[in-house]
Amino acid sequence: MRLRLTVLLWLAMAGAAYADSEGDAKRAFGEGVAAFKRGEYEAARRAFRDAEAAHHDPIIVYNLGRAEERLEHPEAAVHAYEAYLADPGLLPPDWTA
User: Fold this and answer.
1) For the segment 29-59, what is each residue's pLDDT rounded down to a tens digit?
2) How many C-beta atoms lie closer than 10 Å to residue 51's C-beta?
């Protein structure tokens, strides 16, 4: 009984932490989009990196690539675009092996 309670408590805490990290990612992503629109590409890059560190999403990686490209960092841009294209989350579930 005690083990079940411990496991349930741990799962509840993990779910809350996941929700917090996703919220942090959304906030940072929004800041990155706003900075990118203002032409502040270094600020956009930092915000997109913060968003990706909080919660992985392919669209964050893509936008990081765009910021790197605008900053004239071609290797970093290519790396981000390749990571974006290689992300299995981009494919419909029935296309994966």
Assistant:
1) 999 999 999 999 999 999 999 999 999 999 9
2) 26
